[in-house]
Structure formats: C-alpha cells, structure tokens
Amino acid sequence: MTLKVLLHHYGRFTSPPGREFVSEMVATVDPVELDTFSTDQVKLILTNYLGYDENSPTFLYIKKPNCSFDSGLVPLADAIQEHDMILTYTQTHQNRLHLYVSRVELSPLVVTEQHKDDTKKTENQGKPSCAKKLFD
Fold first, then answer.
1. Which structural domain range is residue 106 located in?
2. More confident residue, 68 or 104
3. Does residue 108 surpass a pLDDT of 80?
4. What's residue 23's pLDDT?
5. pLDDT at 93
6. 8 Å CB contact between 58 and 101
7. Mean pLDDT, rounded, of the chain
8. CA–CA dist 5, 30 (Å, integer)
9. What CATH number corresponds to the domain at position 74?
C-alpha cells in the first residue's frame, strides 16, 4: 500500500491544554510504501532534504484521528510497530499520514497525561475513548 506523508516541521507544540502545532512548514513525501516506511527513512528526509542536523534530537509523532494534540499524540516508532494503527490512521485521512516533527521533547505534562491514559485504560474498558476505538 502506498500513502502520502505530510511532514509538519519547523513548528512547535504549544502548552496544554489546547495544545497546537504552530509556525509550521509542511513537506509532502509521495508515494511512500507502507511496508518499508520507517523512522530512519523520515530522519534521512529531514537531514538530506529539509536541512535538519542529524545529531540534533528530533521527535516524530502522529496524532490519532478524532483526538486532540493533548491526548492523541503517539510517537511514530510506536505507531510503526502497531501496523494496524498506521492503516487505521491513513484510511481515516484518505491515505495520508500527518507526521509532526518536534525538535523539543514534549513537556512532562503530556507524558504524564499519556501515562494516566494508559493506567486508566483497564478501568475504562467499557467506556469509549480514542484509544479504545483504534487500538483494542
């Protein structure tokens, strides 16, 4: 399966709540083979074509469909390991994968919220949520 990757880069995440990705540029990579898609491939594009320093820490995220940036960000490496997650995401967005490039690690608040969501997952198994719809 091929897809189009939209790299949202040179921007930054604002603070929660109501987190946004602002001051961004968007680069399009098309076509991309889903079977060979990797974080290494994205990092090569960032360094060879978009001018990123290969030694600079760079974090890659996708946002789960129908979720906010506050609760729906997933590291790209995790999403690639869950092949069904990428398929669900691309099908929702007409074979487009929106990828967010951050040169600054997410604040501890977001990491804490994601951890809380994982902890509450067992408590909320009967309740609908973004994580429940996509990954269970």
1. 2-135
2. 68
3. no
4. 92
5. 83
6. yes
7. 79
8. 6
9. 3.10.20.90
- If one counts the domains in the chain, the total is 1
- Structure tokens given for 81: 């390991």
Q: Which tokens is 49 given?
A: 């074509």
Closest alpha carbon to 76 in 44, 104, 40 = 40
* CA–CA distance, 83 with 87 (Å, rounded to integer): 6
Task: Average the pLDDT over 3-22 and give the result.
Answer: 92
Query: In three state form, how does the secondary structure of the chain look?
Result: CEEEEEEEECCEECCCCCCCEECCEEEEEEEEEHHHCCHHHHHHHHHHHCCCCCCCCCEEEEECCCCCHHHHEEEHHHHHHCHHHHHHHHHHCCCEEEEEEECCCCCHHHHHHHHHHHHHHCCCCCCCCHHHHHHC
Q: Is the pTM of this model over 0.85?
A: no
Whether pLDDT at 66 is above 80: yes
- Sheet with 2-9: strands ordered across: 25-33, 2-9, 96-102, 59-63, 73-75
